[in-house]
Amino acid sequence: MGALATAAEVHTSFNLLFPSRGRKARANKKRLSVIFQEKKVSAQSLKSKPLSSIQVKEIGDKCRKWAWKGQYSINFFVSDSESRPPLLLVHGFGASIPHWRRNIATLSQNYTVYAIDLLGFGASDKPKGFAYTMEAWAELILDFLHEVVQKPTVLIGNSVGSLACVIAASESRQSLVRGLVLLNCAGGMNNKAIVDDWRIKLLLPFLLLIDFLLKQRVIASTIFERVKQRDTLKNILLSVYGNKESVDEELVEIIKGPADDEGALDAFISIVTGPPGPNPVKLMPRISIPVLVLWGDQDPFTPLDGPVGKYFSSLPYQLSNVRLYVLEGVGHCPHDDKPDLVHGNLLPWLSEVTEIVDECNVIK
């Protein structure tokens, strides 16, 4: 989900001390094309439509297994029709495929929807001793596209899942990635990446101490057991969701269930104490495919006025292939927080992108 168990979530109490809300995005009156516009979107600006969701059990029943590198079992979902343009949904850290429960049914109406549990999460393997990195997840995504999907695909990610998609798109081979959707993209696998945020600078000595303590397995186990308690999980979720009604018992179970698996503690330690991974600031200029950035303005983990939020907010002014929408009253996980707002911006963009790509293929 990106809202649980990342370094940001491990340091939840610190983030809650500094819940800086994103500033309203500046209206850009000089846009030459609607494709590159920046908007702030509220619920009132979109016509209300019935929310279409899919049951978590139904998601589980439709999941399959894929052997990555011939040794790691990766859990993935695919919708019924495999003849439509494909999308791949990539969850954030601590989440899994069911976190897309409020999106799959809507997206499946016009697209073949794939969703994947990254190694270490959900029902995928959690190998002991594995060194989790952003680069490894990006490699997994590209291998999945090459071996399973086998078609140019739009990647849709949340938080660290977004960053994994950015890395994959920047390294995409054979035009595997046709578009990129980033939902509150993370700046790194953990807070070590955010070195120029005053909040992190203020807490840096304590964060380094936490990293040291987490390398002591007994201490790490105690912290992890505390983090995955239902009450703790629910409080964290309530702090990062703008729409509190979206934080239901099903969501808590989506996060808690895989956290009880063998190997979950090792993944937790590896990610919080590991390297932050490539910086999106260096990667985004390499990407020429269409990019849609959706950002909740009430995200306490990657706020609009933080370095990551500021950077992505500036992209439409720098890169002609990027479109940005700021979502009003939405937290760190827009797709589950207020899916109607996400769909209202995502579906028209997807239609545009798939039509453009198809036209280019016809011309060729």
UniProtKB/TrEMBL annotation:
One of its GO terms (cellular component) is chloroplast. Pfam families: Abhydrolase_1. InterPro entries: AB_hydrolase_1, AB_hydrolase_fold. Residues 85-339 form the AB hydrolase-1 domain. It comes from the Eukaryota. GO terms for molecular function: chlorophyllase activity. SUPFAM superfamilies: alpha/beta-Hydrolases. This is AB hydrolase-1 domain-containing protein. It comes from Manihot esculenta (Cassava).
